[in-house]
Design a protein that fits this description.
Elements (H helix, E strand, L loop, with lengths): L1 E3 L5 E4 L2 E2 L5 H11 L5 E3 H8 L8 H20 L7 H4 E4 L2 E4 L7 H18 L2 H13 L13 H27 L3 H13 L8 H17 L7 H6 L1
Length: 233
Amino acid sequence: MDIEVLGPPRVTENGMPVTAPTPESRHVLAVLAACPDRVVPVSVLADELAGGMPPEHTRAAVHTAVRRLRERIAEALGASSVRTPETVLSSRPGGYLLDTGGGRCDVREFEREAGAGYRAMGRGDFARAASRLRRALDLWTGPALDGIEAGTWLRGRIALLDADRLSVLGQWVEAELALGHHRALRLELAGLRGAGGPRPDGAYPAALRRAEERALAAVRPAPRTNLACATRC
């Protein structure tokens, strides 16, 4: 199973998208995808659905959503798969787990690239740092879990991902400036601004603007001092 949440959420099994049939099942799938290969308590899933229905109905809605998701997973698996809907989306004590089966997860890739970039920065290897940190940024196609009406738990998860993205952006800019890539950096930042359409009023667009201003200041010639005037004054 491949999972993408650094932008609009997307889950594929056996190369086929797992398309949630209802808003509730789409929400449940997004929460499970935000925490793959780990048990998500039913209470968390129920709380996430509480904004759209009476609280006493949320747990039943979670179980219905899981059943419908398993139906879609079964369609994606096909008859020859050794995996079953019940092992891909498994019931665990107190919750559910979405098993990637060793598949791709963009958050794990982001963390791996970012970690390599941070270690390179620590060694003073700015070229490698810039390359790995840019790879981490390129995994984002928009705001995390874009299009999901997040509840309290999911908002917290999104906030952590956004903070990591801002940290990587800042370190990447530092690496590029250390390499003297001031003019190229402005073009790169413009490309990041257009990729995935981030929310115009969010922290990430604001950080991009600050980085662009810093890159512009780095290539702007220093003001010339009139030495004669300075002497007279």
